[in-house]
Design a protein that fits this description.
The structure is a homodimer of 290-residue chains.
Chain A: H1 16-29, H2 48-57, H3 59-65, H4 72-83, H5 93-107, H6 113-121, H7 125-134, H8 157-167, H9 171-176, H10 183-189, H11 193-204, H12 209-223, H13 227-232, H14 235-249, H15 255-264, H16 270-285
Helix pairs in contact in A: 1-2, 1-3, 1-5, 1-16, 2-4, 3-4, 3-5, 4-5, 4-7, 5-6, 5-16, 7-8, 11-12, 11-16, 12-14, 12-16
Pfam families (chains A, B): CitG
GO molecular function (chains A, B): ATP binding; triphosphoribosyl-dephospho-CoA synthase activity
Protein name (chains A, B): Triphosphoribosyl-dephospho-CoA synthase
């Protein structure tokens, strides 16, 4: 047998992890996404190339998410560790938190809302521990924990790890407890409703995929306040940002104008980007072509 | 043993294949690169997202290039097959032809000019066959073969495959025979001299990596005519394009002006981009941070 005949025949099909990486790349390339780094916009210390390297760095962790012998939290922690091998800091922490359970659902189960719920239901205390360890790799904007989880504060990860072990809190329960204030927690709570809705909108759209992605990004921000804005500023600012996005949809404001006003106020709709990354992954897996 | 303890510790280090993929992503993101698709420019049917998907698609083939049990030509052919899983057509055929031997040199040998020469020296007739098969996946701009290889014309791949088998022409010999007219052939002939020089320039530069890459791209085009321009147009046009790049370096023309004039004449310095991708890979492996 020649060496060549042992070559894999599968090189033309993306693995779930590769599709998730491509989703991260398409997300950051979509433009305009006012307030976020995108193909046409950098922040001063957080630039486009950091997101490219972050997506590549996350690949090994995303591949681990597809392996049933690796804990979901450990896959997430490794994806974050790899993402952090660039100098920009936190590029895709939230996007990976959305993507990791979806990659597992695709690889071992079904990439449906029920399939995603099943992945969340199977999370363990070890996944919670690994989740807290992921915060070691990068600075992430976080709020106070909800009152019922006051002892699970990522700002004191050692105490939080002890608390989730003592109280046997799995990763699903940990994130779902924050669903009222954190849009990613809400996805974990309700089977990724918005993520799957974004995927439907992406597939129903027309034209180049990056144009569709930018349009869906705006819809997503207009539909519900971005919870990263609420954490970094306050609920009123998040509400205001969504109203500005709605004004663009209604033709009452220009994208350039809201980009300028978001930049001026350092408004970064990061959770909207995280959900778009998840939606792009689902859409790619369901046949969206690039 | 818990599932978690089996997790790999290596997620924070890029594999050679991942670094090559990142090099492709950084190459297309660098802007301005007049005449080429880049972060700020699309062509009408060949857009930025096609290069993102092309880079991701190439990963499995690039990973095969790191495996000594896979023929180098087969790894290249699989990389091209994966690259072609997007709707833009040929995005990175030449870049992969530069990268595949460098990935092998890094993984099994040394990423030096001697190491690259050794990889080329070890190529086989089977590698030539796989190289011709790669043209099945995508339309590539090619010229007549050189007279000594008139029977090895990619435009009749079956006949070319028969010819390389009968005449026992390995991939190195095939590409080196075209070194006078094709800059990638020249790299194969002389141990990737320009690629390693590009890597040195990238590492010696300052500022964001994409800005360095765009500056080195311009230097590379100014230094020698782009052989893709020569193939798609003629030697005079390629010479003219390099003189325009030199004029920008000397402050006698603006990047915007040459971008407009290249676009108007459909001038696409693609080989310059291919060499930059190779140089970015070498620079990343030698410590260039993103």
């Amino acid at each position: 047998m020649s060496p060549d005949s042992r070559a894999e025949p599968s090189a033309t099909e993306r693995t779930p992890a590769q599709a998730a990486m491509l989703a991260l790349l398409l997300e950051v390339a979509a433009t305009p996404t006012p307030g976020n780094v995108d193909r046409a916009h950098d922040h001063s210390d957080l630039r486009f190339e950091h997101f490219l390297a972050g997506a590549v760095g996350a690949l090994d962790g995303l591949s681990m998410a597809a392996r049933p012998d690796v804990g979901l939290g450990r896959a997430f922690e490794r994806a974050v560790a790899g993402m952090a091998t660039q100098r920009g800091g936190n590029t895709q922490f939230g996007g990976l938190l959305v993507l990791v359970p979806l990659v597992r659902a695709q690889a071992h189960g079904a990439l449906t809302r029920d399939g995603a719920r099943a992945v969340v239901d199977r999370t363990t205390v070890a996944d919670s521990v690994a989740f807290f360890e992921a915060f070691d790799h990068v600075d992430v904007a976080v709020d106070e924990p909800p009152p019922a989880l006051a002892d699970c504060d990522v700002r004191d990860a050692d105490a939080a790890i002890q608390a989730v072990r003592e109280r046997e809190i799995d990763l699903g329960a940990l994130l779902v407890a924050d669903a009222a204030r954190n849009a990613i927690g809400r996805e974990y709570a309700d089977g990724f409703e918005r993520t799957f809705a974004i995927a439907r909108r992406l597939r129903a759209g027309e034209g180049p995929v990056l144009d569709r992605a930018a349009a869906v990004w705006l819809d997503t921000l207009a539909d519900q306040p971005d919870t990263l804005i609420a954490i970094q500023h306050d609920a009123e600012t998040a509400q205001w940002a969504s109203e500005r996005a709605q004004a663009v949809r209604e033709g009452k404001a220009s994208l350039d104008a809201i980009t300028a006003s978001f930049q001026e106020r350092s408004i970064n709709p990061g959770t909207t980007a995280d959900l778009l990354a998840g939606g792009l992954f689902v859409a790619l897996q369901r046949g969206l072509t690039v």
